[in-house]
């Protein structure tokens, strides 16, 4: 059975994905990564926790197809069921494997809840049986839910302010319209639950497990991604529940650094630029901020694709020995975004936005394009009028 797959978006949630669109997007990412300078000529064994989409996928593609590293990806993705397509991350993993096989690039995937003890045990068993030590651990998990591996209690993250109630515009992607939203301050329980899901606890458990199993190689590195953003978004992000979780992740990195010291290694936290994610479309102001930022950075010539952004991190900073650091020791990959002149222009645009003019004075079209691409739609090189065989689901 064949059918034409069209994007289904409800309340800014993509309910389906296009398999051939995901395939083409992965292919486009690979070709871009291969066109960039070699990251390193070291033979790397890389464990990526959360490598099926976003920055995790961009990291994996750069390291596999540019540095020819062995990558082992742990991610939890939905398979197709009946008439429902699989998740975009499921297709991304599938087609990454297809292209890696074509070029004889080694890889492995484990589709499992990364928060579970079972996930850690299976990864350890694999690396021990393969007689491989891990040179780089990348922790890039993006989940709104976590089940505690010991108590089995379910925790859910919240996108809320903490200091004051917040009012701002959200963007309805499907209708291309602005909606004014108000968010009340988070409760203490919501704050602690968000930290439980998105903070550093699970990251530390991973590094402790790998250390105990003696799987970290000499001079091994670990890296996780955080986000600061602009003061325009501070009230809802940096000073909100997600920001508190990110600060917990950063502080936990100090404990991880103590472990990595035993291997003469390094634990890195990299602050990334604003990108379109499944979460960002729900946060008032953030989608508009991103749309304005993309416009300004493109005009300045400082806008980077997600592939180029992560390539710069590994090529220049992690393996190039030339990191941009702040006083806390964070790798500031977001320096171009937070350039004062760039921020001044973005702020000016944000102050002028209305429901009538936002598409004209920002690059909302690019924001929407990137949102659709996350799920395999609107990808250059795909004919979306052609029916897709259901076996591709």
UniProtKB/TrEMBL annotation:
Boundaries of every Trans-2-enoyl-CoA reductase catalytic domain copy: 85-319
Protein name: trans-2-enoyl-CoA reductase (NAD(+))
Pfam families: Eno-Rase_FAD_bd (PF07055), Eno-Rase_NADH_b (PF12242), Enoyl_reductase (PF12241)
Gene3D superfamilies per the UniProt record, alphabetical: NAD(P)-binding Rossmann-like Domain
Residue span, Trans-2-enoyl-CoA reductase-like NAD(P)H binding domain: 4-81
Organism lineage: Bacteria, Bacillati, Bacillota, Erysipelotrichia, Erysipelotrichales
Domain of life: Bacteria
Pathway per the UniProt entry: Lipid metabolism
Sample GO molecular function, one term: trans-2-enoyl-CoA reductase (NADH) activity
Subunit structure and binding partners: Monomer.
PANTHER family, alphabetized: ENOYL-[ACYL-CARRIER-PROTEIN] REDUCTASE [NADH]
Enzyme Commission number(s) of this protein: 1.3.1.44
Catalytic activity: a 2,3-saturated acyl-CoA + NAD(+) = a (2E)-enoyl-CoA + NADH + H(+)
């Amino acid at each position: 059975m064949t059918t034409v797959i069209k994007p289904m978006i409800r309340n800014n949630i993509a309910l389906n994905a296009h398999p051939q669109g995901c395939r083409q997007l992965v292919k486009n990412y690979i070709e871009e990564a291969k066109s960039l300078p070699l990251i390193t000529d070291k033979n790397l064994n890389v464990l990526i926790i959360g490598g099926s989409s976003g920055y995790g996928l961009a990291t994996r593609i750069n390291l596999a197809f540019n540095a020819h590293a062995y990558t082992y990806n742990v991610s939890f993705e939905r398979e197709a069921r009946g008439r429902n397509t699989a998740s975009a991350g499921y297709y991304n993993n599938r087609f990454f494997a297809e292209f890696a096989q074509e070029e004889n690039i080694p890889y492995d995937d484990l589709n499992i809840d990364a928060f579970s003890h079972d996930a850690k045990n299976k990864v350890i068993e694999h690396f021990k049986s393969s007689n491989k030590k891990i040179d780089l651990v990348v922790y890039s998990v993006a989940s709104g839910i976590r089940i505690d591996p010991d108590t089995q209690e379910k925790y859910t993250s919240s996108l809320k302010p903490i200091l004051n109630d917040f009012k701002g515009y959200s963007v309805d992607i499907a209708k291309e319209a602005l909606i004014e939203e108000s968010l009340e301050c988070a409760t203490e329980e919501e704050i602690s639950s968000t930290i439980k899901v998105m903070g550093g606890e699970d990251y530390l458990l991973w590094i402790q497990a790998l250390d105990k199993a003696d799987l970290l190689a000499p001079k091994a590195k670990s890296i996780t991604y955080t986000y600061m953003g602009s003061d325009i978004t501070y009230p809802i992000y940096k000073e909100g529940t997600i920001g508190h979780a990110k600060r917990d992740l950063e502080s936990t990195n100090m404990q991880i650094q103590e472990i990595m010291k035993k291997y003469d290694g390094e634990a890195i936290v990299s602050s990334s630029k604003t990108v379109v994610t499944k979460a960002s479309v729900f946060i008032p102001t953030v989608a508009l901020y991103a749309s304005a930022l993309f416009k300004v950075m493109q005009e300045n010539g400082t806008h980077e694709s997600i592939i180029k952004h992560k390539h710069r991190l590994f090529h220049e900073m992690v393996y190039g020995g030339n990191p941009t650091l702040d006083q806390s020791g964070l790798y500031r990959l977001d320096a171009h975004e937070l350039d004062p002149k760039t921020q001044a222009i973005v702020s000016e645009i944000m102050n002028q936005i209305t429901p009538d003019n936002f598409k004209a004075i920002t690059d909302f079209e690019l924001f929407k394009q990137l949102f659709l691409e996350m799920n395999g739609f609107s990808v250059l090189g795909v004919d979306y009028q052609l029916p897709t065989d259901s076996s591709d689901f």
